[in-house]
Amino acid sequence: MDNKIQEEEKVKIIDNKKYHQQESKFNEHDHENSLSSSSAEEEENENSAEQQFINYITSHLSDHLTVEERSDYLQKVLSQWRKHRKHTQEEQQMYKKYIKTIKENYLGTNSLLPSVHPLYQFQNWKLNPKLIQAINENNFDSVLVQVHPGIYTFECFDEEFCQQLIAEINHFEKWCLENGIRVQRPNSMNNYGAILDNFGFEPCLQDLMTHIVEPLAKHVYSYITPPLDSHHGFVVEYSMNKDKKLDFHVDNADVTLNVCLGQEFTGGQLYFGGVRCQEHVQTPSLPNEDFYFDHKIGYGVLHVGKHRHRACEITSGTRLNLILWVITTTSFL
1-333 maps to which CATH number? Predict the structure, then answer.
């Protein structure tokens, strides 16, 4: 088992990873057109945004600066702002092309469109029947087990479904590789895995959030203001020749559901080190906050996003986990 997190280790804020510019056989002919000059309306919007930025910066400049110093500083900051904005806009354009390419060309396993593929229909997801019954009867204690303060586990999927989902994810990554498409990774820390929302699973994950995660979260985290109305769903992968672990971090979410899909592996526990607000996220863990969670295929672990955690190093095999970050737009935390 990994040693306890050292007090001096910095907690990372894990966030959605931006799409990076890439080429594929589907977009190689129109790449230049995607970055063509803006329309008159877009140019007007850009000029307006730049003027707002200038007004904001100048309103915060010290009165003790000379005219020349103010001008030099403004030009420097404005140049940086323009470069950053252009880079962001190019990333957004490439992300749109990435999604468009998938929607227009991707076929799931058995050469089926996601819109008609059984695995992409939430009613076909093999959820634990006892979980459904517990939610319908408002009898959460029959399935939820609190393994540590604020950390809950429950049986979510059967193993057959987990293997079907893994096969679909592998099929998507193989399709991307064959067509020269670089898979958009889940976030700013994981180098392997895929965003499920990007290739047809968004409706399923929306239903998973609404019908499973939200009622469970309302029961155990009553201080979180409903509704839970936004999500980011993805799969991460750990193996000996890929990512072996994930550093200490907090999630960009109000509530996180983490379900182990498989496969055979040893090690890779989740270490938890206490809940912290943004102001105190770097404070050391207390002895009673240390907890290690062992993954079991088909089982989920539920925790708040600000419960600091890390994925300990895997020692053999391959582990894939479905992770659903759930957010309420009315969050106070």
Answer: 2.60.120.620
